[in-house]
Amino acid sequence: MSSFKEITFLFLLLQATFLINHQVKSDDEEDNLLQGINKYRASLNLTILTKNENAACFAGQIADQFKGQACTNTTGSNTVPGNEPQFPNYPDLLAHCHLNMSNTQDSEVMPACVPNLDPTLVLTNFTQSQYAASLNDTKYTGIGIESEGDWIVVVLSSNTSSGSFEKATGAGFISSPNLLIYLAAIFMGFLLS
Q1: Which of 61, 116, 127, 168 is buried deepest, with most CB atoms within 10 A?
Q2: Is the CA virtual torsion 91, 94, 97, 99 positive or negative?
């Protein structure tokens, strides 16, 4: 019986390690971009953008929509205005993050596709493209960034009620699937002790 507990514990420990390592790699790309965007804004004497976890959740949902889609000259920051992809499941994407349309209207969603998410090219895709106008806009105060494969999505939020990305009333207390996995692993560890 004790060997079963040891094997189960090692299995859970291995899974937690894998999840943490995956999250760290992804966070590095996003943190590098946030730092680069804030340096860019500072060079223009604009206030820095603060992390908005709800906007990041939504950016992750949008990034998932691009999963497996190849980079082309008509995707991401190269998209001709008016030809951006439309998501028929947009309300579902908002609902996943416990958001609604009324507090996300005054925002900007900016996807970019960069092979291997090279940090220099990623930053250039936002600061030297059609997205630069949004990054230069003083109405934006918050930012959410998530990536999936070669895609990285930036969501800009404002401090207005129509762009704050505040959670809809009645949102649950656990908003991150990763948090739920970690809590389950800790619970299993207590049970096996």
Answers
A1: 61
A2: negative
For the stretch 117-150, pLDDT in tens is 999 999 999 999 999 999 999 999 999 999 999 9
143-172 pLDDT, tens digit each: 999 999 999 999 999 998 888 888 876 544
Over 13-68, what HEC string results? Answer: HHHHHHHHHHHHHHHHHHHHHHHHHHHHHHHCCCCCCEECHHHHHHHHHHHHHCCC
pLDDT at residue number 169? 64
pLDDT-derived band at 22, boundaries 50, 70, 90: very low
Q: What is the dihedral of CA 130, 157, 76, 153, to 10 degrees?
A: 140
For residue 160, what are the contacts with CB-CB under 8 A and spacing of at least 6?
Answer: 106, 139
For residue 71, pLDDT over 60 is answered with yes
**What does the alpha-carbon distance between residue 49 and residue 172 come to, in Å, rounded to a whole number?**
26
Which residue in 2, 112, 103 sits closest to 52, CA to CA?
103
